[in-house]
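Record type: monomer structure entry
Structure origin: computed from sequence
Chain ID: A
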Amino acid sequence: RTPTIFGAMDVAKVVNYYENIESNVLLWYNKRMNAINSREKTLIGRAEKVKFPTLGGLVLHARIDTGAKTSSMWAISTKVTKEGLKVEFPVEGSKKTITHVFPHYTKVRVASSMGHEQVRYKIRMSAVIKKRRIFATFTLADRSTQVYPVLVGRSTLTGKFIVDVAKGAPSRELEDQRSALLQANIEEEKV
């Protein structure tokens, strides 16, 4: 018999022991990856109500836009303080606002579909869409001229949601008002 550093332990038993560990680790890893990959995606429509627990449960209408890479939110004002980025958000259907300080934030340069570039603040917070809680990143922008104060883009949707444009909770009244305003502008330009 060949002496081993394991003393009386048989080399075959040691090899078997480590093969079992490796097998268990691979089994655990495969189960974990299958659980992540097989998680059902939530079906959402072209517009949805989004709840923001970080903002005291504020609920805002959001446009779901698979053509936009990033998500954005309407921020009425932003101010850098010692505590972080102080942001004022609108309360939909009201003149009230909600203010929150984000201790962690960054600045990013974003380009619109028209090619216009802007530097915006970027924050990360939890959001609930169709009862599914996620963490999402939002750039802060002036969306006062838009129908929806929130735009949810691909970076938030990927791997979590499937979009069916026939579904959702669109704000038809606001969409109709915006469409009428745009049509009136066209008529004025013709004159």
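Annotation 1: The longest strand covers residues 117-129.
Annotation 2: The mean pLDDT is 83.
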